Amino acid sequence: MTAVSISVRRQAPPPPLRKHGDTPILQLNEMPQLVQACFHGDADEVRALLYKKEDVNYQDSEKRSPLHAAAYCGEAEICDLLILSGARVNTKDNRWLTPLHRACCSRSDDAVETLLRHQADVNARDKNWQTPLHVAAANNAVKCAEYIIPLLNNVNVSDRAGRTALHHAAFNGHVEMTQLLLEKGASINAFDKKDRRALHWAAYMGHVEVVRILIQHGAELNCRDKQMYTPLHAACCSGQISVIKLLLELSVEVDAVNSFGNTPIHVSCLNGQDVAVNELIMYGASLNSVNNKGQTPLHFAAASTHGAMCLEILVNEGANMNVQARDGKTPLHMTALHGRFARAQTLIQHGAIVDAVDKSGNSALHIAARYGHELLITTLLAHGASPLKVVEHLLRSGAKANITDADGYTAVHYAAVNGNKLALEMLLDATASESLNRTATLPPNTPLHLAAFNGHDEALAVLVNNFMNLDVKEKKGRTPLDLAAFKGHAECCEILILQGANIMVQDDESKRTPVHAAAYNGHTECLRTLLQNADHKEIVDCTDEQERTPLMVAVSNGHVDCVLLLLSQGANIHSTDIFGRTALHRGAASGHEECADALLHHGAEVNSRDCHGRTPLHLAAACGHVGMLGALMESGSPPENLLDNKGYSPLHWACYNGHDSCVELLMELKQLKEFNGNQYTPLHCAAGNGHDTCTELLLETLGEAIIGKQDGKGRTALHAGAFGDHCDCVQMLLAAGSDINKMDALGRTPLMFAAMNGQSSVVEMLLHNRADVTLVDDDKNTALHHACIHRHTPDALLILEKLDDSDDVLNFANNEQKTCLHIAGRHGMVPVVQTLISKGASVLAVDENGYTPALSCAPNPQVADCLAIILAQMLPFTPGTTMRSGRLDITSSPGGSRNLDTSDQGSVGRNLQDTRELSGSVQSSDSEFY
Length: 930
Hints:
This protein is mainly α and 930 residues long. The chain is built from 53 helices and 3 strands. Among the domains are: 773-857, CATH 1.25.40.20; 878-929, no CATH class. The protein has a 3-stranded antiparallel sheet with strand order 1-2-3, covered by helices on one side.
């Protein structure tokens, strides 16, 4: 029997930053005095503290600064003081919220005006990609929005979910904000990633005035999202009757269907919105429309949790009660399936057919019996269903107990899955035991499996006497004992073991035993039953396909009671799997400290290494389990060599994954302050992945000892940070004295790395710190070359801003004799080409192929050669003058005709002689031209 599937209730979007409860500075008295002064709004105290050199860029555990606090509290004067004292106006907390976000959240328009005056970034995004305008729109900060919008290029910028500021204003019902955004050019039909418009959200939330404004500005009434929901569907989902009336008065499509075939009246019944159902019927909604599964609104009303009143309305309005869906189920079947007793009575009283069967041959009585709805069974029997006990009557009437359904299941299977002991006894008495043991013709899930999996111990006790093989396997190779152990049914395990079930049988997928299954899910009683009844004590260390023991899987999942039981039974704590990992390795990786404590108490080896040479210390550090790391460090003396097979220490792993608490703890180990092993240092790991807190800890603790270290390719941590666009890390490294012009093994500087990877913010920062733009790598490429080679126009323009018109860098040629103008032209970088030429880059420089920048724009050498021929023909000559281009002679004869010597077509244009630029007139007076 199959349950009907009904589409789920539509969910609202999570609102953006909210004012109340959003700033979790819980213990204000523990904060620095500067932060407290910001919250108290005491500008004089702030001045005094700033005079005392209080840290203006202090960050709490969530990286919020005093400027965040002042902006949130709307203290414009304090914001001004902090910024003038060096506070970073665009600093971000760990949710990437800037002070401008905070000010918009609390509708602090004075603070917003102050922040904007100090160049606050109006396009800054938090982790949900929401800009300050999104936050202002969500919180009805109209004045703040008025300050921000003129500074934006686009008011339709979307967040991570694809929602614009208009979406958020509409969702929250902010009429004035909606009006402002529309006046400033917000797109009325902008849609989010689910194709939902602002009208969808306003309708869903019932903001009738916002809906009215959107419609007045041209919103499409019957617009649809990705699942084809209209605004009317959305309003009906949440029962927003005012919006429903407005939309219906405007003649929207009352029977519009979504991608599931559901009309607005379907979704109203699904969500129990009886008032909406009434309104839709008044406007002519179809009572008997069917969706893709053939279900009517009455099917939904019969099944849904709150659909009772909807069902009453539909029945009274004359809805057809006996419509069968594609699976053959009627609304009465739905009441039986979901146990809706009162609704079943209503349907029967109005003429529902009691004995109608679905495509599986099940009547409503069958379904009610299957799901144990006793009141429904009584009701159905009282209204004409068979008054006899179904099973007993059928058996006495000669029905075959071993007959199978379409899936091969017999009545014994169904009785077993529901634990019906009495029915099982009757069925087994009427069934030959040979038929139960005929595994080739029956489904792999035997009645034994079904009873054991569902914990029906009484039914299982009846079944075990009728099966010859208690270790029969289902399709994944699991025995009934394995399933009982996996689900934690200790009584079932005991019954099976006492009847001779084998504890050591392995499944076919992972080769696990029932002992593994019990340990995996933490079923201590099952595990105890299995261990106490085992013939061999070695079962405590049995292994699966990957040589994992029950102790390992128990530790991996944090089941400390199972761990203690296994240890008390003599489990080997030093056993390793195929990767060489012990149970302690798994505890370190999963962070289950109680399990690890138990292992350590029983003598687990802290310094054991897996196949990669990693100890539990490595795994705890890599996974960020600081408590576990501390316990491991305290339990024994770490070895002098803490490097894995690739030369990485636990400190490397903690820095690579940004676990600053682990970094701080590991810095106490003297072994990790000496840089042996892999030349890619922990500082490289931290800076290369943008973990600024880890970077700061390393610099504070190790300083000069680590700042200049180079990896195997000669790259410093500054190279790594520049490559990944990690501005905060780059800033710290520069402040700590990292060589800004350090070259790696290929001669590349951090500026080149940033330029070649398109990291504009880092490029700008490095240029601001006077990175040398004239340096060239081993291929004679400058940073400007790299920006052009990788087509990063913004980076190239930033570098060009730093160059004077007389700078030789403009015409530096690399190993291929290409200048930046050659490369920029080849890649179609129009702004870069314009800037290069305006600054004096030579348009006549020739590369190794003899091409000028103009010829480099050609898509291939053949086109370049053709272009050279055409350009040569276009150039004016006096009689008798010959211009040579490689082996191509273009000669003007006295008669004015031109002769082409094309003896070598392959070299056309490749050695075009460098000529001077024409000035003023068509013909040049330069003697070299003639």
